[in-house]
Amino acid sequence: MGLIELLILAIGLSMDAFAVAICIGLNMKTASFNKSFIVGLYFGIFQAAMPLIGYFVASLFAQSIIAYDHWIAFGLLSFLGIRMIIGSLKKEGCTDRDCPDDLICNDRACPDGEPPKNKENSLKPKEMLPLAIATSIDAMAVGVSFAFLQVRIIPAITFIGVTTLILSVAGVKIGNIFGKKLKSKAEFAGGAILVLIGIKILIEHL
Q: Whole-model pTM above 0.90?
């Protein structure tokens, strides 16, 4: 896997985190660089760690199923991509965070009967860890694909982590300014990227 392919893959994987970062930015009164960087750090670290876990688990079995590795890589990436695309088509708001007091609640899918809260959500571990895990868990399957494709794992996960960090920081800023309009578009684009990479891998090995 070349550098350009890895960059495209990293962007595709980052789109879930980017979409959630937009929601987080939407709920911030002011998205300072420090706050944005904290969000990016959470997402970047977990987005790098999950493929590493998948890689080591799959490495134990890679030699025994090497004849089918391209099909596995294609299947995993396509599954993740299609799931992201389907998720992007569902009309859902930023339900993972409460509506901020300075925004109209109808702009998002706020829980029925729950009034806007007068305080901003914190970036403490108990708030951020579930989001970081949820947005990165699918990347474990990509780590499995890396094992079958014999990708150099440390440079790959570093690249993915840094890319996610940068895009998440940007997502917080964008969400703070523009709201959730780009959330579904980001998820759709990320899903399409993963599907196309899976198809490319399959074609190269047939």
A: no
